[in-house]
């Protein structure tokens, strides 16, 4: 089986700061680094590091040689990433001493994928493969429709939250993944949460898998000392899908995903901080 991911690819600019800047404040950073990021790329790297065969679908600019090389180094297939004249998406990320962050996002080439690109990329997908989607690219609804028509299992991260995007993608979604803030926004916008398989992540409080029947599978978070929480949700989703793709049960997949996210937040960075399958296995054994 395989995981196909229509997702963003960003260059992250990460600044360690004594506290998150207030409006109008000029703040000296304690350190600066760049790395691979974007919710899509993060999820692709997480799934590939967890052992899945991953094909990333997206778009980057002419400045993305290093980013594409990093994706390939992590085991992510990049043949379906289109190189364009539009700058690669990037994020400016500030991280404080408590590992909380604030992010400014420039989408860039992430808004260029279209139906034709998705159809071409998914021509080799097989029934039962996974299709991952987030709200940082164009063509999510088209991709979700194509994926369902071809028998793929569509997993949708409703982030960054946009109720119009959710309305378009949800009819073709097999599994909806949100953090608790996004779940509250969806409830407020729609009045009720649609009867679809969904996962709600709650940070240090763990995660819950809700079935349409009302059954809830709860998995606690592992206690760790966080360094940087950027990309933790993406790490969880990538590892979850990789585990499900490998045939693990829901409780097993949720537990591995929770362990992976716990490891990831103890490391600086997003895509660069994703653990591999051996890391997760050793963590669970310990």
From TrEMBL:
Keywords carried by this UniProt record: ATP-binding, Carbohydrate metabolism, Cytoplasm, Kinase, Magnesium, Metal-binding, Nucleotide-binding, Potassium, Transferase
* Pfam families, alphabetized: PfkB
Q: In which pathway does it act?
A: Carbohydrate metabolism; D-ribose degradation; D-ribose 5-phosphate from beta-D-ribopyranose: step 2/2
Q: Where does substrate bind?
A: 10-12, 38-42, 136, 234
Gene3D superfamilies in alphabetical order: 3.40.1190.20
Q: What class of enzyme is it?
A: transferase
Binding-site list for ATP: 179, 201-206, 233-234
Family named by the database record: Belongs to the carbohydrate kinase PfkB family. Ribokinase subfamily.
What is the recorded name of this protein? Ribokinase
Q: Which organism is it from?
A: Aliigemmobacter aestuarii
């Amino acid at each position: 089986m395989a995981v196909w991911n229509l997702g963003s690819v960003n260059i992250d600019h990460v600044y360690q700061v004594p506290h998150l800047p207030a409006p109008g404040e000029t703040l000296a950073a304690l350190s600066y680094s760049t790395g691979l990021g974007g919710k899509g790329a993060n999820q692709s790297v997480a799934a590939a590091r967890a052992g899945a065969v991953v094909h990333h679908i997206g778009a980057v600019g002419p400045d993305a040689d290093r980013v594409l090389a990093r994706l390939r180094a992590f085991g992510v297939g990049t043949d379906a990433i289109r190189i364009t004249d539009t700058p690669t998406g990037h994020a400016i990320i500030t991280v404080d001493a408590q590992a909380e962050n604030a992010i400014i996002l420039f989408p860039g080439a992430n808004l260029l994928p279209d139906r034709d690109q998705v159809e071409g990329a998914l021509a080799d997908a097989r029934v039962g493969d996974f299709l991952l989607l987030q709200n940082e690219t164009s063509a999510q609804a088209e991709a979700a429709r194509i994926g369902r028509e071809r028998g793929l299992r569509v997993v949708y991260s409703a982030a960054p939250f946009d109720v119009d995007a959710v309305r378009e993608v949800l009819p073709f979604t097999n599994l909806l993944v949100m953090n608790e803030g996004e779940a509250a926004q969806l409830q407020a916008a729609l009045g009720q949460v649609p009867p679809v398989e969904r996962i709600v992540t709650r940070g240090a409080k763990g995660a819950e898998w809700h079935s349409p029947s009302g059954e809830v599978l709860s998995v606690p978070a592992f206690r760790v000392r966080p360094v940087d929480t950027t990309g933790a949700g993406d790490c969880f989703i990538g590892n979850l899908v990789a585990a499900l793709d490998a045939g693990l049960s829901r409780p097993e997949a949720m537990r591995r995903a929770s362990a992976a996210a716990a490891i990831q937040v103890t490391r600086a960075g997003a895509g660069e901080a994703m653990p591999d399958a051996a890391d997760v296995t050793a963590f669970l054994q310990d």
